[in-house]
Automatic annotation (TrEMBL):
Subunit annotation: Homodimer.
Organism: Candidatus Methylomirabilis limnetica
UniProt keyword list: Cytoplasm, Gluconeogenesis, Glycolysis, Isomerase
Active site: 95 (electrophile), 167 (proton acceptor)
Designated name of the protein: Triosephosphate isomerase
Any coiled-coil regions, as ranges: none
Amino acid sequence: MRIPLIAGNWKMYKTSSEAIVLAEAVVKALSMPDETQVVVCPPFTALAAVGQIVAGSKIGLGAQDLHWAKEGAYTGEVSAEMLWDIGCRYVIVGHSERRQYFGETNESVNRKSLAALASNLTPIICVGEILFEREAGHAYAVVEAQLKGALSGLTSEQVQGLIFAYEPVWAIGTGKTATPSQAEEMHAHIRKTIALLFGAEIAQGVRILYGGSVKPDNAKELLGRSEIDGALVGGASLQIDSFAAIAKAAKR
């Protein structure tokens, strides 16, 4: 059975001192049994501080992005090795906001994923369609192209440890949510695509999270679907009560 994973993407919220308070609350509330994993992804400025709080707990630490180069003249960027050094074990790659606002492409997602794996970080690779693409009937084709681009050149061994997150972009920060059926159908398509590329055994082992306005009141129904292996939580991860409720809804 795939272990559910709940990842909190704090986006550009929380100063270092605020992040410490939230991280302490997460550790206290969510040092859960092994049947559920919890990861927090603070902004870069709070990673080291939060890393100290979650060290030794069952809470994992993740970053929100990285650069594909090991080092170099890339002002403002952060490498996989730097993230590993301060305790990160996960990194979000290709989030829809990175694609929309900062020119992230399938090629850059691929390069970042390879860089993460080279430093033993587990990428959480995000895919998802915008509203126009869904309404035009292109959602599956768009997500399939994103997957193929992101996974180009990866081996089956590398893919089997990856985490994916399906983000219906039209449901992020809008209050809209894909229905459980819509979400599960896309998750099944993602798994089918991975199976065609790397085999059914690999596809059955990877975890696919749902990310798109996940809240306590819809978490149980979404996370109860067999193809949905957890959630990439945005705004609701910034309040301990809502994040804890979502994480506890993932218990199987």
